[in-house]
Amino acid sequence: MVGGGQGAFIGAVHRIAARMDDRYRLVAGAFSAEAGRARASGRELGVAEERTYTDFAEMAAAESKRKDGIDVVSVVTPNRFHHRVAKAFLEAGVRAICEKPMTTTLEEALDLVELVGRTRLAFCVCYNYTGYPLVRQAREMVAAGEIGQVRVVQVEYAQDWLTTRLEETGQKQAAWRTNPAEAGAGGCIGDIGTHAFNLAEFVTGLITQQVCAELTTFVPGRRVDDNVQVLLRFRGGARGMLWASQVAPGNENALRLRIFGERGSLGWEQEEPNRLLFSRYGRPTETITRGGPGLGKAATSATRIPSGHPEGYLEAFANIYRDFADLLTAWPDGPSGSTPSLLPGVTDGARAVQFMIAAIQSSRAGATWLDLTP
Amino acid sequence: MVGGGQGAFIGAVHRIAARMDDRYRLVAGAFSAEAGRARASGRELGVAEERTYTDFAEMAAAESKRKDGIDVVSVVTPNRFHHRVAKAFLEAGVRAICEKPMTTTLEEALDLVELVGRTRLAFCVCYNYTGYPLVRQAREMVAAGEIGQVRVVQVEYAQDWLTTRLEETGQKQAAWRTNPAEAGAGGCIGDIGTHAFNLAEFVTGLITQQVCAELTTFVPGRRVDDNVQVLLRFRGGARGMLWASQVAPGNENALRLRIFGERGSLGWEQEEPNRLLFSRYGRPTETITRGGPGLGKAATSATRIPSGHPEGYLEAFANIYRDFADLLTAWPDGPSGSTPSLLPGVTDGARAVQFMIAAIQSSRAGATWLDLTP
Amino acid sequence: MVGGGQGAFIGAVHRIAARMDDRYRLVAGAFSAEAGRARASGRELGVAEERTYTDFAEMAAAESKRKDGIDVVSVVTPNRFHHRVAKAFLEAGVRAICEKPMTTTLEEALDLVELVGRTRLAFCVCYNYTGYPLVRQAREMVAAGEIGQVRVVQVEYAQDWLTTRLEETGQKQAAWRTNPAEAGAGGCIGDIGTHAFNLAEFVTGLITQQVCAELTTFVPGRRVDDNVQVLLRFRGGARGMLWASQVAPGNENALRLRIFGERGSLGWEQEEPNRLLFSRYGRPTETITRGGPGLGKAATSATRIPSGHPEGYLEAFANIYRDFADLLTAWPDGPSGSTPSLLPGVTDGARAVQFMIAAIQSSRAGATWLDLTP
Amino acid sequence: MVGGGQGAFIGAVHRIAARMDDRYRLVAGAFSAEAGRARASGRELGVAEERTYTDFAEMAAAESKRKDGIDVVSVVTPNRFHHRVAKAFLEAGVRAICEKPMTTTLEEALDLVELVGRTRLAFCVCYNYTGYPLVRQAREMVAAGEIGQVRVVQVEYAQDWLTTRLEETGQKQAAWRTNPAEAGAGGCIGDIGTHAFNLAEFVTGLITQQVCAELTTFVPGRRVDDNVQVLLRFRGGARGMLWASQVAPGNENALRLRIFGERGSLGWEQEEPNRLLFSRYGRPTETITRGGPGLGKAATSATRIPSGHPEGYLEAFANIYRDFADLLTAWPDGPSGSTPSLLPGVTDGARAVQFMIAAIQSSRAGATWLDLTP
Fold first, then answer.
1. Cis-peptide into B133, omega within 30 deg
2. SS3 for A334?
């Protein structure tokens, strides 16, 4: 693991997710660039001192030389490091699970696409919401034509934790996520807008062609956007809207997707992830439940316990880790980049960066339409 | 009443609404331009034969001359007649309740603004959703600063009844509403988009300054838009999104408004109109109920029965009629145009037409930004 | 109308309900036994002075002699008068719509059963919740075997308005409803418990055979029960629970019915009356909506406006009045007691009284089982 | 671990729960009495062959002698073995986490109470729903008087998986749970009724004094009850109802608790465990969220991730394991029975057995009132 030292949020989530199915062991880490904090974190996490690094490059080099070196690295640093860390490990032959957004520039993103294509090493970007069983069910249903050709996509991701200027209070998460030097040019657009974008494309299978984006900063003094409104045009004629906000009081983590097709619709919300609304035009709406009747293969294999016992965020996250472990098991000795899988790969990561960059540019140009070339 | 003959939908709603509080009697009507249908409708509704007209102009003339002539006319025809009917009665000195959109062109709209301004006769446009008690409560709360300055407005109005080409099946409502000759250039934008627009401005008190609209026709062969997606810029810096659709399976009449301010938010849905969600940043969300604790004056005076006994669409509609009757009671003998009231007046009607026209033009120009000059 | 003078609640509801479909005119009334209040009420309601009575017996006599005498009387007095008022009018040949509970003793109830049976005059007890379209839909579905043989019935009716000793504050509704001299021996059991009981039998078609009831008075000083918990045994083996409470904070008028059969279940809540949950075992739950797809005849004919425009309490109440008007139209000149109809009749009224009395007796005996002999 | 071999459900849940916080290692097990299955399970779970037992008594003996012997045993066998397994380990000085119901007879339950009292070893019964953060929040709020003295408790636990005679189809879970020889005399009452009972007492802090229970078997041929309806009398005057059913179509795992006090109420549902409804009489209802504003110490310390990222069943279960680990950490070398903790202990386990036995006896006597002597 690189990043995820004491005080970090997402690192702990990754560790629980990895532990859930007993498929991983945490044996090495560069938890912090600060030596004291790195050591303390390693000790707390039971990592041997000799494998507790303060420099990720050193770790990549050292681990790739060990006989018992790591099989996979989790990249959980602030955004601006994602590219260089992932690159270092891939070049050292180590497969990687990388946090989103994959990079902060398009050039870096394309660089990783090229690198993964060349090394054919398994690589996954943590669009973790794709791990929810009913998200996968929705994708499977759209692909099977259950709602007919998709016409309209409404996706939103609303939070309220940045309603005030939290970054000035010393809150670590708020501080780096609103600092362009750490998070990149995008604030809300990168932090959660790309999740919404990825979810929409993942479930519908549609390709976004053009965007018209209005990014706003509502909290005085903030240096990045905290509200995002985007019109989307998809290849084939479907239309969409995307709203992401971190200044929407009353919303905790309200990622919500609705898809409308010629014959029906699907609706899913992250805060009640065990329900999927399915409407067939001219019939009463049905509530499909995780583990309940009528589920397809994708959802069934992504769930651990019977219906009615709610699964949540950690279980969905753990599905990413479990699927990645399955990839490694299938290809224990080497490249596996082309193995089919539901995991968001380097291309999905790059598309999301492309979306983020296009949205920022569109907004700067006064919210005009921009192409999202493939 | 002009329009609302046999087979019509909204005419019957107006009649129930007018009857609810026993403040009106239906004594004259031009229910249809077709003589047979007009007479049959009149008979069914208990209107004297001599006051059952086939021509609205004749009715305006005749009724304004009678000593017991009508006090108010309800204009419930297809859109393209609104302007000329309203005009005929206003010029004859008769006050009017007019269906929305008030007119199909901006010129007609401004003409009515001028006419009402000049005659100072009471005039109301049926943005009936403003009659819901909790919509008025929300407006009052925003005005009182309960959520602070408004930053983000998300409004949507989704239906599914035009998912297929219903207009080809002989369904009367679908036929005229998708016929530009009857409904005007706007389909979904005029029919329900203006409701969403009006609701957003009514509750927030904000003035929309610019729009960027994408109007789409998804059903092959349809001659008007059936899906509407708009970015909104409000005076003062607030930002909004508006989605209206008549091809969204699983939605019946899903008008939904969410408003986010510096200190809190409000959320309301027309299909569950007896609940208003109120979040104060940093506190648990509260569910305010119609008739329940914590209501202000506007909501309290707009409700008829105790909390927990749901009120619905007809009661909200009846509030429009009741308020209009109150206006007449206050100004029995003449002009009352400037009386303060919560009723949507001719200016609100004109603003919605302005929005509709701007959205159509924006969309035709490829979804570019257009001003909505006041 | 007898009762329903100024300050009353349910009288106004009856008047709106009667007006909704333009099938009734209010022409006479004994709105209060107090002369001043009676006159003032009559004047306010537009009833001629000569037909404004202070004595219901006088009214029955006078009206039955007039050529233009009333066709129907609405009995909306406090409970203890129901029997004598209904009797007076029935004996004078006037049909009646009577508030619930029909009487306060079993003897009185049986007396009315005999009287209606003998006169064969149309008579309806205001179990108004049976007027909701989706309640009728549920009844039709159970009867059609959609959920198979019923096994379990869970019904509840919770309110919170008597959580404190409101009757001491001068609140008129609280005062008479908690006064045994006005309301009868039952408090909560009579006021809302009988609604829940009636709803359960109406929808399931089951006959309650035995009850075991625990009636409690939680508010110190109160003279009637304010919380009711009952186990139910139905003929044929089904089992049920009934909970009614007026001291349940957070509940406004939460009447809720759930029915479970061999093959499926149905669920309905009065506060969201436009939705009916339908589960077929082994299939996702469906949400049936008022006016939406899949409705049967009973629901369709009990609704006035399209789906998605919520109907509420007043519309359901108006269905009772409309159905009663239909009865009179079918049998304009006389007896109609045996006409088939969905209206709760004198037998249903008597069964509810029987239930109420049995529950009171069971509770007094320490919550033991008692028969509810037919 | 004793029990939980291949094909079992709850064993896997315990293992994930134990793993979640990295506080346990699975090092020994008697996963099945059948040698082949025991060995295969052990191998799959990575347990050394020498510590894979086929006999729990042998395991207790062997492990207690090892220097590196187990610190805790998880008892996850069918109900009838709970007592003898727990006893064997406790007598060998090994602390235990035991599935519910703790035993199948009252004698066995009291025996364990005595044994735990004597040995003062940490012992926990898996009433896992007490591990949900908002359940603990509710308990804390009741104890703090937030809703005043409790008056009414409505608790229910509804499932539908036994709507048909599943036990005849070879489904392993259905087979043992409906077999009195394996599960004890109680079916639904023991399997889920005791969960509901425990939850009600845990949150309210009330002591159940008397029960009147109706246990029914609806599915023909079934040998145990599948539907349970109980009236409850609590010490101090509160009243309650408990419904548990395994034949309620449309319910997956619908454990739901509502508590009404003099000043307010609380409501929680297991299928949406991240929300707690809190009503203060005369104020709008508030929705308290896991991780959101207004939480007390108990809830805060029982949650792993920020609000809006739903936690579920496994996280709640893991809280039981984590708290037990905390107990062991506090008392590493021995007895800890009297350490204060939120964990359901041997007394809670015995109370639930007492309730189960009393309910069965009450029902057999025709649903009469029975004491639940402490």
1. no
2. coil
Alpha carbon of C262: minimum distance to chain A alpha carbons (Å)? 17
Chain A residues near residue C280 by CB distance under 8 angstroms: none
Q: Kindly tell me if the per-residue pLDDT of C337 is higher than 60.
A: no
The CATH architecture one would assign to domain D132-305+352-369 is 2-Layer Sandwich (3.30)
Beta strands in D99-195 (DSSP E): 123-125, 150-158
Q: Within an 8 Å CB–CB cutoff, is residue B268 touching chain D?
A: no
Across the interface, whether the CB atoms of A314 and D314 are under 8 A apart is answered yes
- Residue identified by tokens 């809207």 is A241
Q: What CATH architecture is D2-129+324-345?
A: 3-Layer(aba) Sandwich (3.40)
Inter-chain residue contact D285 with B283, CB threshold 8 Å = no
pLDDT (tens place) for every residue of chain D, 374 residues total: 999 998 788 999 999 999 999 999 999 999 999 999 999 999 999 999 999 999 999 999 999 999 999 999 999 999 999 999 999 999 999 999 999 999 999 999 999 999 999 999 999 999 999 999 999 999 999 999 999 999 999 999 999 999 999 999 988 888 888 998 888 888 999 999 999 999 999 999 999 999 999 999 999 999 999 999 999 999 999 999 999 999 999 999 999 999 999 999 999 999 999 999 999 999 999 999 999 888 999 999 999 999 999 999 999 999 999 999 998 888 776 665 555 689 999 999 999 999 999 999 999 999 999 999 76
Beta carbons of C285 and A283 less than 8 Å apart:
no
The reply to whether residue D305 touches residue A289, judged by beta carbons under 8 angstroms, is no
| Residues in B 275-294 with any Cβ partner in D closer than 8 A | 278, 282-289, 292-294
The CATH code belonging to domain C133-304+352-369 is 3.30.360.10
Cβ–Cβ < 8 Å for D345, D328 = no
Give the pair of three-digit tokens for residue C1: 């109308």
Contacts of D among chains (3+ CB pairs under 8 A): A, B, C
Contact: B281, A366; criterion CB under 8 Å = no
Residue type present at position D6: Q
If pLDDT is split at 50, 70 and 90, which confidence band does B260 have? Answer: very high
Q: B22 and chain C: CB distance < 8 Å anywhere?
A: yes
Tell me the C-alpha to C-alpha distance, in Å, between residue D312 and each of A253, B345, D296, D302.
16, 51, 19, 12
pTM over 0.80: yes
User: Do the chains contact at A312 and D311, CB–CB below 8 Å?
Assistant: yes
The gap from C-alpha D104 to its chain's centroid, in whole angstroms, comes to: 14
> Could you tell me the fold of the domain covering A2-129+325-345?
Rossmann fold (3.40.50)
Q: Where in chain C does DSSP place strands (E)?
A: 2-3, 72-76, 95-98, 123-125, 150-158, 208-216, 227-234, 239-245, 254-261, 264-269, 275-280, 285-289, 369-371
Taking the CA of residue D17 and the nearest CA in chain A, the distance in Å comes to: 8
Confidence at residue B354, expressed as pLDDT on a 0 to 100 scale: 97
Q: What's the whole-number mean pLDDT along residues A173-185?
A: 86
Exposed e or buried b per residue across B199-220, where buried means at least 16 C-beta atoms within 10 angstroms of its C-beta: bbbbbbebebbbbbbbbbbbbe
- Which of D284, D289, D293 is nearest residue B287 as measured by Cβ atoms? D284
The CA distance from D28 to the nearest CA of chain B, in Å, is 46
ipTM: 0.95
**DSSP E strand boundaries for A101-207:** 123-125, 150-158
Q: List, as one string, the DSSP characters of A270-298.
A: TTSTTEEEEEETTS-EEEEETTSTT--HH
Class level of CATH domain C2-129+324-344: alpha beta
Rg (CA), chain C: 20
| Structural domain boundaries in chain D | 2-129+324-345, 132-305+352-369
Position C374 pLDDT exceeds 70: no
Question: Which residues sit opposite A154 in a β-bridge?
Answer: A241, A258
Which residue from C minimizes the CA distance to B13?
C305
